[in-house]
Amino acid sequence: MCGVYKCISRAGAIRWPSFKLDICSNRIKAFHQSRRRSPKLKMHLSFATSITLVSFAAANPLSNRLAKRAAIDDCLRTANVPVDAPNSNDWRADSNPFNQRLKYTPVAIAVPTTVAQVQAAVSCAAKVKVKVNPKSGGHSYASFGLGGEDGHFVVQLDRMNAVTYDSATEIATVQAGARLGRVATALYNNGKRAFSHGTCPGVGVAGHSLHGGFGFSSHTYGLAVDAIVGATVVLADSSVVETSQTENPHIFWALRGAGSNFGIVTSLKFKTFAAPSQVTVFAINLPWTNASAIVQGWSTIQDWLKAEMPKEMNGRILGNRMQTQIQGLYHGTQAQLQTAIQPLLTKLNAQISQQQQYDWMGAFSYYTYGQQVDVSRPYNLVETFYSKSLVTPALPSNVLQNVANYWIQKAMSNNRNWFIIIDLYGGANSAITKVASNATAYAFRDPNNHLFLYEFYDRVNFGSYPSNGFEFLDGWVKSFTDGLTTDQWGMYINYADPTMNRTMAQDVYYRKNLPKLRALKTELDPTELFDYPQAIQPV
To answer: Where does the FAD-binding PCMH-type domain start and stop, copy by copy (predicted)?
Structure first.
């Protein structure tokens, strides 16, 4: 390390008195001599030397990252935890964010293949006092898997991606690094089983399900988080615990909705269902070319969703500059779909513009839009974007008018590649809002206030996202929230918005569950080892 410091000094970035470099050199010489003398002494001096460097760096902020890298590298090497070599192909792949707008440099990247290695990695992070973050699929919109800022220690989990199924219990055990396409494929190939989750095959199962997990089965079967019946997690003290309704139930409650705040989940157990033999994808074109058409159509859809939308129906409204459609998946045949959706078609004076019957995996493939389904490594899909989210009730007429005006006057004049997704989330027949509001840490279960889940997404195909672009989505979200009380809306951390400060983010993501979550954070991780800019804070 002294050589590295010396090179930086020559470059003019850090200038230290020569006696400090001499002391550092002597310590490193003693360390290397100890490595040859005794394995036990090697371990002791290795960590002691690293801690000396960290302590020394505390008075020299510019050197802190290098010192922590030395310390964490020493500890991981001693513990035999596999890592990405800095600037290697693996390092570049594992540190490359899905959202290219938010690039951060980790202090180190561990790539464990066993739970014991995850434990050792967490132990090293605690000893060196560096923040640590699990990274499953790496799809955090805010790059929270990389820490959401420079200098965090990343535990990359995608080498741990096994999927197994127990036919006696109908429970699937899924390692945290598996991606949704791999999970869906493995379960379907093993008894034609499934559980509810999203449609993007490259999304990691852990982050997706631990914070909600909406998809085209959620209205029928609930969110991915609702299928979790057990989880193995490494806590801040590096202990590994099993959690379920009967084992560590308080931790199990917190993991289901806020899992990234309390540890590194290494595997999950999901209750599965028999995949339907026939499902039907469909689309309905909406002529939303002016504000009055939006208000009229939206009002009709929200009334139908609140009271009539069948349990077997799953859908969303997708709008962009080119068109607006209802898209969905009906759990049944084309004939059954036609009967079930006819009341809505009559009210909208519309017809189905596209429909096709598939088996379960055929429908999953349809909504991947050509992506590889069973994907693990390498995974190279990236975009440059800004995104926001909302969860709202049925919109009052004044709010709906403001939203529609914004859509026509502002959104349609934006030439970037934006879209809005309005998920048909709640309603009388939704499995999501039938779950008790206190059953999990996931916040949005109120059948009256949680009817729609929104994703607002604004991206550029080339170059950087413009510095004046943020106001577009900020203004659109404001057109909703200005007419609602704070207890009527929230935001969804799977579409994280890093422009919010921590206080606001905690509130809108977790709402009434936040006090209990903060108390559990105080109990389980009081030093905030598992941390990122919008993480839950201890009391």
So the answer is: 102-275
Write the pLDDT tens digit of every residue in 177-236.
999 999 999 999 999 999 999 999 999 999 999 999 999 999 999 999 999 999 999 999
**Which long-range contacts (C-beta less than 8 Å, at least 24 apart) are formed by 41-49?**
42/78, 43/78, 46/74, 46/75, 46/77, 46/78, 47/71, 47/74, 47/75, 47/78, 47/127, 49/74
Residues with Cβ within 8 Å of residue 523, at least 6 apart in sequence: none
Q: Which residue is associated with the tokens 């030395």?
A: 70
Q: DSSP secondary structure string, 176-227?
A: TT-BHHHHHHHHHHTTSEE----S-TTSBHHHHHHT----TTHHHH--HHHH
User: Is the separation of the CB atoms in 420 and 135 below 8 Å?
Assistant: no
Sign for the pseudo-dihedral over CA of 410, 413, 419, 421: positive
Degrees, nearest 5: CA angle 81-85-86:
130
Q: Helix, strand, or coil here: 385?
A: strand
* Phi and psi angles of residue 441, each rounded to the nearest 5 degrees, phi first: -75, -10
Tell me the per-residue pLDDT of 74-108, one tens digit each, with 9 for 90 and over: 999 999 999 999 999 999 999 999 999 999 999 99
